[in-house]
Amino acid sequence: MKRSPWIAAVLGLWLVAGCTTIDPYTREEKTSNATKGAAIGAAAGAVIGAIANDGKGALIGAAIGAAGGGAIGHYMDQQEAALRQELEGTGVSVTREGNNIRLNMPGNVTFDTDQSNIRPEFQPVLDSVVKVANKFEKTNLRVSGHTDSTGRESYNQRLSEYRALSVKDYLAMRGVVPQRLSSVGYGESRPIADNGNASGRALNRRVELELIPTGS
């Protein structure tokens, strides 16, 4: 009996996604980011293989896709671990979103009030980011600036742009290849907390740095 190519595709994905690891921070069992990337790559490769050929082609496609997706995931796993080590205790949070890594830099830590010049005491923190970024060169870095809703919207927009550009320029000055860098300001348009209270506004005043694997 000939196996359906779609069953083969699902089987290839299931085999890849079944692997788990132990989270080094929570000690809980989880599917590693590398495995998630492999699973996504397997799914894509399996579907392509199924369409192009038969069940055998789907499994071959899944294997090829898993190798590529897993390699990216593993690469970003290593970079995430390095960033967590370098930035521990600095006030910068490290968040993993798929294969992307997001660094949240609170505005009161990074800049003085209503200023876009990076505080001198925060420069060593950015130097730590540069250290990791230059070790993992297969990622691009996107800097975004954000504000709370206090004051004029047009002013907040400009301030967010200037702050993002300051971080981008600092990274370039310290040796990150400029072609890997981009910056954008969102002003008050993307809050992550309630602007109706002081603690929420403090969270909204931030600069985020997203590390994105090239080719993704």
Rg computed from alpha carbons, rounded to a whole number of angstroms: 21 Å
Strand segment count: 7
Strand order of the largest sheet: 3-4-7-5-6
* Average pLDDT for all residues: 81
How far apart are the first and last residues' alpha carbons, in Å? 39 Å
Textual characterization of the structure:
This protein is α+β, with helices and mostly antiparallel strands and 216 residues long. The chain has two domains: 5-76, no CATH class; 89-213, OmpA-like domain (60s Ribosomal Protein L30, Chain: A). Helix content is 51%, strand content 17%. The chain contains seven helices and seven strands, in the order H-E-E-H-H-E-E-H-H-E-H-E-H-E. The chain has helices spanning 5-17, 33-52, 55-87, 107-110, 123-135, 153-173, 198-204; strands spanning 21-22, 29-30, 93-97, 100-106, 139-146, 181-185, 206-213. Strands 3-4-7-5-6 form a five-stranded mixed β-sheet. Strands 1-2 form a two-stranded antiparallel sheet. The longest helix is centred in the N-terminal third of the chain and has 33 residues, at 55-87. The two termini are 39 Å apart. Mean pLDDT is 81; it is low at 8-17 and 23-28.
How would you briefly describe this protein structure?
The chain is α+β, with helices and mostly antiparallel strands and 216 residues long. It has helices at 5-17, 33-52, 55-87, 107-110, 123-135, 153-173, 198-204, and strands spanning 21-22, 29-30, 93-97, 100-106, 139-146, 181-185, 206-213.
